[in-house]
Specification:
heterodimer, A: 210 residues, 2 domains, 4 strands, globular, B: 101 residues, SH3 type barrels, five-stranded antiparallel β-sheet
Chain lengths: 210, 101
């Protein structure tokens, strides 16, 4: 192994017992290295890129949309351009659509076929998002799922579950919590959880004044 | 909602009633089982995309297929709805859709 980028340690096999799929992925990685398709640096860069994408990106978009109506309009009209404006690279998404929640409409996103997810905006999906349980229940029992995340909606609110089956990636724009009029954009970002941008719950309520 | 690629493409327009084809064949099918044979309406025309059924096997994805956002009443898909206005919305390519009354 070469000594580039101090990556020997990162590319060692873990010491604990590997699962079947882990063994397979390490074998594929070793073959790609051996055949010169990739080098250690490529792999390390990709890991760093994957790790750099996180729900903080989505929270930035949402908090700005809450405080800046013109930005919100741009985010809804052309989400990729709005991302670029905020220094977020969403170009790897084929098409990106923002779903705006209101008092009368809540959106929730699932991919029943696999685990399609707006990774540049939210990072890697949580394990539950990929589980059979969520993928099945999101479409036929969305209110049951929301309830488990602590959100109970009246019957006159419309729940719209988006099954992300094709080239479109969806981001939910949650409602701005009440009583947050005086909060800064940075403080608002803390209320925007990953799960509120998947739509299984609302944004966090404003913290009571100390 | 966000931007549509090309609202002028495809044979269906927003509001058109459509029925999802009930087909079963091998391949990389992006139409979920639970909506096959079910009726809904076009909520939005997303425009033309490469066909994933071809791309998945190393094909060129051509001819492109128009992709629609199709809305279904939850009760029409699952027999009962948790609340009357609830809907499930699925992205479906045109060759999986027929006009419905």
């Amino acid at each position: 192994m070469s000594d580039t980028h101090g990556s020997e340690q990162a590319l060692e096999h873990p010491k604990h017992e590997l699962s079947y799929y882990a063994k397979r992925i390490y074998a594929i990685r070793d073959l790609l290295l051996e055949k010169g398709v990739l080098d250690e640096k490529d792999i390390q860069c990709q890991i760093e890129y994957q790790e750099a994408r996180s729900p903080a990106n989505g929270a930035k978009l949402v908090a700005r949309a809450w405080t800046d109506p013109a930005f919100k309009a741009r985010l809804i009209a052309d989400p990729k351009a709005a991302c670029l404006e905020m220094g977020i690279d969403a170009t790897s998404i084929n098409e990106f659509v923002v779903l705006e929640n209101t008092e009368k409409v809540r959106h929730m996103v699932v991919c029943t076929l696999c685990s399609c997810y707006p990774r540049p905006i939210l990072g890697r999906p949580p394990d539950w998002y990929k589980s059979f349980n969520y993928r099945q229940r999101a479409v036929n029992d969305p209110r049951g799922v929301m309830h488990e995340f602590g959100l109970v909606l009246p019957d006159d609110v419309e729940v719209r579950v988006h099954d992300s089956t094709a080239d479109i990636r969806y981001l939910v724009l949650p409602l701005r919590p009440k009583g947050t009029e005086t909060l800064s954009q940075a403080d608002l970002e803390k209320l925007v959880t990953r799960d509120s941008m998947i739509g299984v719950m609302d944004a966090l309520p404003a913290l009571p004044k100390a | 909602m966000g931007r549509a690629v090309n609202e002028a493409s495809g044979r269906f327009r927003s509001g058109d009633r459509v029925r999802v084809r009930f087909e079963d064949r091998p391949g990389h099918i992006r139409t979920p089982w639970y909506v096959r044979g079910k009726s809904g309406w076009v909520e939005r025309v997303y425009g033309d995309f490469h066909n994933p059924e071809s791309l998945a096997y190393g094909g060129d994805g051509l001819p492109t297929r128009t992709l629609y956002l199709v809305a279904f009443n939850q009760a029409d898909v699952f027999g009962a709805a948790e609340a009357p206005k609830d809907k499930v919305l699925v992205d479906i390519y045109e060759h999986w859709l027929d006009p419905a009354a």
